[in-house]
Amino acid sequence: MGCFQSKTAHLPSPDQDPPVPDPANGEELEDEQAVPAFKEFSLAELRAATNGFNSELIVSESGEKAPNVVYRGKLRNNRLVAVKRFSKQSWPDPHQFLAEAAGVGKVRHKRLVNLIGCCAEGDERLLVAEYMPNDTLSKHLFHWEKQPLPWDMRVRAAYYIAQALDHCNTENRKLYHDLNAYRVLFDEDGDPRLSSFGLIKNSRDGKSYSTNLAYTPPEFLRTGRVIPESVIYSYGTVLLDLLSGKHIPPSHALDLIRGKNLLLLMDSSLEGQYANEDATELVELASKCLQYEAKDRPEITFLLSAVAPLQKQTEVASLVLMGLTKTPVVLPTMLSPLGKACVRMDLSAVHEILLKTGYRDEEGAENELSFQEWTQQVQDMLNTKKFGDIAFRDKDFKNAVEYYSKLVSMMSVPSGTVFVRRALAYLMNGQPELALRDAMQAQVCLPEWPTAFYMQALALSKLGMETDAQDMLNDGASFEVKKQNSWRN
After folding, report:
1. Where is the Protein kinase domain positioned along the sequence (predicted)?
2. pLDDT value of position 364
3. Residue that finishes a domain, picked among 266, 299, 322
């Protein structure tokens, strides 16, 4: 019963590769690493992917307080995505939004968090991008838990950001709105990538600039406009973050640089990790980027040539530098057809299998229908079960839930099969939390029933709880093996 109590106590960040997609069940991808073609999603698809925009799936660091909230989601083909939901007053013109998003969707690069779709229905405006499981640069610099970000990783981040900006320039996307440490995210390999969300204007007129005014390019304060040189200024503020490990106003940093007080600028946790001349180079580059006059700031190509020589451990993987591990998904080898259907999240296949199985897994179990005297109550119970089973067979899942709910209230000894069938009906109705509850109740009825574990795994996957879902698959598979061994003996 430990599984029943412990598997759903938290919502972990998904830090594993998504399972191989089933082409018959969603978008067609060449492989699980491929970036899918940009597409327009329906609001229903994205609502389902985020479990109804569940607040538990918010991954933007300001949470629900942010004007534009980002959710972790999962598409029908099991691909994890980030879904950005704009505030209601953003982008009143849906055509302008779709055109802007489609333009950014054409920009593809290994240093970008690529945009893979959008949605404009009613007053909803949403963007869909690749999901990055290893947090933001801001988290690793300012709110680290195990270890501060090493010097070599900071230099790598500076170089990769410059590569991303250089590619955007070549694609004629020279404006990046609000470049900061929150816009840099780490992928499953621990490599930093620049969010494509920053290539989309923050508002319909392109004037919005949401950073703290202390870090805003001077020309924006004067004119309310962002220009390509503003991106260089913001890059300079990111360099300050990387050097200092804290938010430091550019004016204060420049005073320290002019006064040759580099030690006061540098993050003390980096002591002994860098050569003084390398730190000096990076500080001087930041100073160039932060020049008051836009014309005095360097080109992006200069940033690349300046940072490239400072990289010393190019052969060491980012995950190693950061002290992170990449754990691949290893699906159990012994999975029944039901288990495999749950992995694919193929609800139609699950329905067919449950219909074929019927109630035979409960044969021999103490049951209300077998042990009560033949009374009107039992007749009502049988009729309710009959109507529930007919609705379930006919895919009338709304009525199936109603009849099975009535049946559960009538039975003193609940049926695991009824709970499992109602769980699937809840999933078909887009209610994965209720489905998870029922699948757990089925496990209470039949503690070693693989079907109960597989259905929990399916509901957990729908909720985006990948680690717990795999645990349940493993548990179901182990009971499957145990059952098969008992038959052989």
Report:
1. 56-311
2. 58
3. 322
Distances (CA, A) of 208 to 290, 309, 406: 20, 35, 54
| List of residues 6+ apart from 373 with CB closer than 8 A | none
Helices 151-170 and 300-307, packing angle to 10 deg: 150
Phi, psi of 24 (to 5 degrees): -80, -5
Domain span holding position 402: 337-488
Bin 420: left if φ > 0, else alpha if -120 < ψ < 50, else beta.
alpha
Between CA 191 and CA 318 the distance in angstroms is 6
Q: Which residue has the tokens 């590569």?
A: 163
Place of tokens 């070693």: 448
Asked if residue 200 lies in contact with residue 100, where contact means CB atoms within 8 angstroms, the answer is: yes
Q: Same structural domain for residues 307 and 348?
A: no
- In this prediction, residue 62 has a pLDDT band, given cuts at 50, 70 and 90, of low
Given this model, what pLDDT does residue 411 score? 82
Identify the residue whose tokens are 């409960």.
Answer: 362
Long-range Cβ contact pairs of 262-267 (< 8 A, separation 24 or more): 265/240, 267/148, 267/243
Which residue in this structure is represented by tokens 């990046």? 176
Claim to verify: residue 106 and residue 211 sit in the same structural domain? no
Helices (H) and strands (E) in the chain, counts: 21, 8
Strand order in the sheet with 80-85: 39-40, 115-121, 124-130, 80-85, 69-74
Per the structure block, which two tokens stand in for 448? 């070693």
**Cβ atoms of residues 109 and 161 within 8 Å:** no
The residues carrying an active-site annotation are 178
Same domain, 78 and 167: no
User: What does the pLDDT look like over 115-149, one tens digit per residue?
Assistant: 999 999 998 999 999 999 898 999 999 988 788 99
Question: Are 376 and 290 contained in the same domain?
Answer: no
Residues 481 and 391 occupy one common structural domain: yes
The one-character DSSP state at 463 is T
Q: For residue 226, what are the contacts with CB-CB under 8 A and spacing of at least 6?
A: 175, 177, 206, 209, 217, 220
In the numeric block, which tokens belong to residue 341? 């259907």
Where are the alpha helices (H) located in 295-346, listed in sequence order? 300-307, 318-322, 337-343
